[in-house]
């Protein structure tokens, strides 16, 4: 099957939001070319044969980002492109810079779609313990304590390069002690569920509103035996979920976190922690306010570029 590539020229800070818009519109895969990603790469050995590469020699964007969604060839472009364009422009009303917000479409054959992003995606050490590796790379851990997470980035976003994903992985590394029950809301690629299991979490359940994301997560979970028992499901936030767990994680936009807050409070055990990211500067105060109003106690807040990550907990009986 051939595909239609819908490309959105945007800003680095809007990458995850645009990725979500494309996936929600029916994209069967998302490719990200973000100038910010190259700021984290250094000259070194990459690839199966250890070729020495200087990222400065690799053609890439010098500023902003291009997010490309791959749609079935029969998608109705006269409606699709204007709709996506309007949605991207509207991101400004949510405090996100849409950048140029240019939307274009072009045909692409199946073989190119399957390999186009591989030249941009290399092993990435995200935290002291966690390294994300594309499934096609041979990789040897540098230390015994290093935990390797294998991903195929072709079907959903959340590959560890974006600040919001990194903030959440760092937060999980801080809070997981072993055996915790966890719900991953808006799982995307499944990277946070895999991270949690690699760090020693117990029962993990992951939800996403989009079936494409759930299929992508299922594939990535299969690449990581440690995550073989993660339960996956299609669900809108925590609608209809009534079970108390130790941890809830959500790397989604602030506007979606706000209605999730009371659901998270209900579904956490006393003392349970709520880890959130996807919060742009302009929305951080709103999320803090809603968390506190619900009864959460904010434990810590971290920031990377324009993005915030918050760890809060549901009070215990002694704290109420």
Description:
The protein is α/β, with parallel strands linked by helices. The protein has two domains: 112 residues, Alpha-Beta Plaits, CATH 3.30.70; 154 residues, Vaccinia Virus protein VP39 (Rossmann fold). It has eight helices and 16 strands. The strands form four sheets. Strands 12-11-10-13-14-16-15 form a seven-stranded mixed sheet, sandwiched between helices. It has a four-stranded antiparallel sheet with strand order 2-5-1-6. A three-stranded mixed sheet has the order 7-8-9, with helices on one face. Strand 10, helix 5 and strand 11 form a beta-alpha-beta unit. Helix 4 packs parallel to helix 5. The longest helix has 14 residues. The radius of gyration is 19 Å and the shape is globular. The termini are far apart. The mean pLDDT is 85. It is found in: Cytoplasm. Methylates ribosomal protein L11.
Short recap of the structure:
By secondary structure, the protein is of the alpha/beta class.
Low-confidence parts lasting 5 or more residues at pLDDT below 50?
A: none
Pattern of helices and strands: EHEEEEHEHEEEHEHEHEEHEHEE
Helix content: 25-40%
The total number of structural domains is: 2
Read across the widest sheet, the strand sequence of neighbours is 12-11-10-13-14-16-15
Instruction: Count all strands and give the number.
Output: 16
Distance between the termini: 58 Å
Q: What would the principal axes of the Cα set say about the shape?
A: globular
At the fold tier of CATH, the topology name of the largest domain is: Rossmann fold
> What's the pLDDT, averaged over the residues?
85
Please give the CATH class of the largest domain: Alpha Beta
CATH architecture of the largest domain: 3-Layer(aba) Sandwich
Task: Give the name of the CATH superfamily of the largest domain.
Answer: Vaccinia Virus protein VP39
Strand content: 25-35%
